[in-house]
């Protein structure tokens, strides 16, 4: 494979796909639409998981595990949910293969091993979980029920892209049950906040919090809250959603509780999830023409040390010195790699770690040994400085913080520069086509208008921002009255 | 559900099933053979995962993620592996449901959405992984490749039991590739050691390390190493296996590497796994007629504090005192729960935590407040002591260590008392039928004898122990010559 990475300005989509492969994050597999997440990509996901898991537990949630399969009769119990996912679900129909005498003994499905009831591979787990909750919830004392699951799900998408849209993906799905509508609404809101905090503080990816329009809601939800990020090519990415499910699943699965007053009431529900799609968002928020750029808080390797040497003696001398540096950094919680491979030149190593987005690179050569110095380079700005070896830990600490902050600020500036208020459909089209980003526009609130705008511009309503103010105006397409602006964008 | 737990002596199998439900570990789901792992059970699995994951990483492995589905043509590439799993695999044949006009619009498989090639839900991932490794391995520099995956797998077993044998289960599967046979053998051995260390040091479950006989090997392996534990009812449990796969998968998927000398060589492989089955082993190693008994190192809650009070004032006074105790224990890394529920009496709480296997229980009442004391009870022996409140942390620390050790010793004594050397088939049958446990016997090394013994006694060869000595003898069934004893037992 060529070492050259297509430039973003040339072909953003090609750049994205190449970067993922060259940075060793993931690759397509032999299964249509399914990816292999390679160790380096998976290490990023593990860091995300660890942080999110901590945040979920801090907010009172516990992990559990529910079956991969959903019997068809349960799958279709909540009508809207079933309708939304039936078109793209993998279905298990048989439980055995046998050798086929008509085809050289190759394996075929054994017709005698047909399931009585087909099993849907979960595209999301509301159905199987609410069917289980029925047995867990009797009284108000059993509520709230606050559960999360880390799992794989399958949605048979026709057009897939690594991380952004894959037939199988990894995610977490929270499923909670509450005694009152307000509690459920507060939970949905809380998890939107948790996602936003995670996106901004760890991924350094600014997000807009808002609610989806009716047609963009999760199938089966009464309200879908979202965090929307902006990618470098001006397209939006839905990065996480938190749904208020009302009593839809409680009614579909007959889940009632006895209130303190002894009345039987339907339970209120939420569900919320983020997935490996976040890694796609991370890539398209920060990376550049040299490769991946990672925020230090999610970087599997935060610092790489590359020795510049001739001959084994020099390498040994450098290695001895590096040993102390590595120990000190590790003792301070920094993840460090010392790359002493003798099969590759320093320049090639530099390029490799730039491609892999390692935030800080330290190079130590013969002269550095003599002078007690090291060269430290940061990935985000390519700036270099020569520091005293005794100051390495302090400098690295400072740099990791600065890089984390710089990535966020840079992305925020870009995002803020790409929210454009428009007041006519001409402007709307112009911004969507030429500038990209979010367009803040008045909309008459009808699905028809939303559909028409999508048809004409490919832009969809990303959200009605939480902080949108009431403002009298007229719909950018129809001229009908409107009371607030919403955000449109082309989206992944 | 009745609070009464069936006694082990009455019906061990019933006791096991009841305990799992009453201790809130897991339950059967609406999907045949698949279980729901409840939060308390899942918390034990998380503790196991964390420890194992640490051990895998310490031995140089990285995590990755491979697709859930295996296309049929890949599945059948390694013949023996395919043969071994074809009989019990879930098969996806369609990717869409549609509403059925002949059945009130209920969903049915859409005949137009039939997959060109069926997808097997992974029962194990050698096939999909080795097909991927083909692209990752070119030269000796790419080796060893040391990868692990945490995943769900599906084996359509006809007779299932919670944790021990479920159609879907959670596990980890390591898949490694090596340049030489010896390296692969050493890896398989190393992982057997890791599993044994984990079982003994964390689960407090003594295991015998050995190799499987040919007929008990993993389908596609040249050698299967195992750790075998003994349950309280005298039946053995295969708790983890590590396979030397030879070049079988390398040949099936044509995975070669260029050696230093530039020759193309097939790669050598291992795979190894443990699963949620371990939780079944944990239960049947330590638990008693009062419920679950957990080793402190894997207990989600290590200490529970129960207040004994009348009225809110007393509760408040106790809670204030407990607050300090809880903080001190937590600061020392002990997981503590203060159960101040006012809906349950102390006696009922005691029973609940006994059922859930919490290692240490602290009770504090009015008199304790006056005297500055607390009552501490240990779950494994039910022993109680009254200690000064200032000594709680020290006492808890000591107790947690003692309990961990006592559980191991108790299980080891039981296990050692249940390895019986026999020299005739009469003795063999007698021990298997009446005493249980492992029978150490001479075997002529043939599959026929192994099968015959299984047919006559239901006992199988659990392993040829790593530490078995060469010893001249005659096969317990056929009288043919034998050079070493092997261990037989009835097994789960």
TrEMBL record, chains A, B:
* One Pfam family named in its UniProt record: tRNA-synt_2b
Record keywords: Transferase included?
Answer: no
Q: Which family does it belong to?
A: Belongs to the class-II aminoacyl-tRNA synthetase family. ProS type 3 subfamily.
Q: Name one GO molecular function term.
A: proline-tRNA ligase activity
Subunit structure, interactors included: Homodimer.
Annotated ranges, domain Aminoacyl-transfer RNA synthetases class-II family profile: 27-295
> What is the annotated localization of this protein?
Cytoplasm
Q: Which domain of life is it from?
A: Bacteria
The protein's matches in InterPro entries, at most eight in alphabetical order, are given as: aa-tRNA-synt_IIb, aa-tRNA-synth_II, aa-tRNA-synth_II/BPL/LPL, Anticodon-bd, Anticodon-bd_dom_sf, Pro-tRNA-ligase_IIa_arc-type, Pro-tRNA_ligase_II_C, Pro-tRNA_synth_II
Official protein name in the record: Proline--tRNA ligase
Chief localization: cytoplasm
**Catalytic activity, as annotated:** tRNA(Pro) + L-proline + ATP = L-prolyl-tRNA(Pro) + AMP + diphosphate
**Listed PROSITE patterns:** AA_TRNA_LIGASE_II
The primary gene name is: proS
């Amino acid at each position: 494979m060529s070492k050259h990475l297509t430039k973003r300005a040339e072909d953003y989509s090609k750049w994205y796909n190449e970067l993922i492969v060259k940075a060793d994050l993931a690759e397509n597999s032999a299964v249509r639409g399914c990816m292999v997440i390679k160790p380096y990509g998976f290490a990023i996901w593990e860091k995300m998981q660890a942080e999110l898991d901590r945040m979920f537990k801090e907010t009172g949630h516990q992990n559990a595990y529910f079956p991969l399969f959903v019997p068809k009769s349960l799958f279709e119990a909540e009508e809207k949910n079933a309708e939304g996912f039936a078109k793209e679900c993998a279905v298990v129909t048989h439980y055995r293969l046998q050798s086929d005498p008509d085809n050289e003994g190759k394996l075929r499905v054994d017709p005698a091993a047909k399931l009585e009831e087909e099993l849907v591979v979960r595209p999301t787990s509301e159905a199987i979980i609410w069917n289980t909750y029925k047995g867990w919830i009797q009284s108000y004392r059993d509520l709230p029920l606050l559960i999360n699951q880390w799992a794989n799900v399958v949605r048979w998408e026709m057009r897939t892209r690594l991380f952004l849209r894959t037939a199988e993906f990894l995610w977490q799905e929270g499923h909670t049950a509450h005694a009152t509508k307000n509690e459920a609404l507060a939970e949905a809101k809380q998890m939107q906040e948790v996602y936003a905090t995670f996106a901004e503080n760890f991924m350094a990816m600014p997000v807009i919090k808002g609610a989806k329009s009716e047609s963009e809601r999760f199938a089966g939800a009464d309200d879908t809250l979202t965090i929307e990020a902006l990618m470098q090519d001006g397209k939006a990415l839905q990065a996480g959603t938190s749904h208020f499910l009302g009593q839809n699943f409680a009614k579909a699965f007959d889940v009632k509780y006895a209130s303190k007053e002894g009345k039987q009431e339907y339970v209120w529900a939420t569900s919320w999830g983020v997935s490996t799609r976040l890694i796609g968002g991370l890539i398209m928020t920060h990376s550049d023409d040299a490769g991946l750029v990672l925020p230090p808080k999610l970087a599997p390797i935060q610092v790489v040390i590359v020795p510049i040497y001739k001959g084994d003696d020099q390498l040994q001398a450098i290695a001895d010195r590096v040993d102390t540096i590595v120990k000190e950094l590790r003792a301070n919680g920094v993840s460090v790699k010392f790359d002493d491979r003798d099969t590759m030149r320093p320049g090639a190593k530099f390029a490799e770690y730039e491609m892999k987005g390692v935030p800080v690179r330290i190079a130590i050569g013969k002269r550095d040994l003599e002078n007690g110095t090291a060269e430290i380079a940061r990935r985000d700005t390519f700036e270099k400085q020569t520091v005293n070896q005794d100051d390495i830990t302090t400098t690295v600490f400072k740099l990791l913080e600065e890089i984390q902050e710089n990535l966020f600020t840079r992305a925020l500036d870009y995002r803020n520069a790409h929210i454009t208020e428009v007041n006519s459909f001409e402007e709307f089209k112009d911004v969507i086509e030429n500038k990209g980003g979010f367009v803040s526009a008045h909309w008459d609130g009808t699905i028809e208008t939303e559909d028409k705008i999508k048809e004409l511009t490919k832009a969809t309503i990303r959200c009605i921002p939480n902080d949108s103010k009431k403002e009298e105006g007229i719909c950018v397409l129809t001229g009908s009255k409107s009371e607030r602006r919403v955000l449109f964008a082309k989206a992944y």
